[in-house]
Amino acid sequence: MFTVDTVSAASDLEKEIIFHEPHYYRGDVSDYMIRSTQSRVKNRGLSFPAHHTPDIKRGDIIIESDLSKKERKLPLQARRGKGEMNLPCTKDCF
Length: 94
What we know:
The chain has helices at about 10-20, 40; strands spanning about 35, 60-65, 70-75, 85. It has a four-stranded antiparallel beta sheet with strand order 1-3-2-4. The chain has about 90 residues and is of the alpha+beta class. The chain is built from two helices and four strands. The chain is globular and about 30 Å long.
């Protein structure tokens, strides 16, 4: 269990995905991200505009924007933000 504080730009849809959708473990974990594709499947056709795309730290919760696959991801390593992954929370999430 951990605490998540969302940024003001986080959409209601992103909050729904973060707080109410179970994480669907794909089984193809890389050294960089744990992917959960159910948000992409369930919300097909809905918009996820890019809004808060800072550099990414281990433990953040990411919701990819329309510029990418619209998946929820948990980063395992830090990386530079590229403007395609929204970070809807304000601090390390785990």
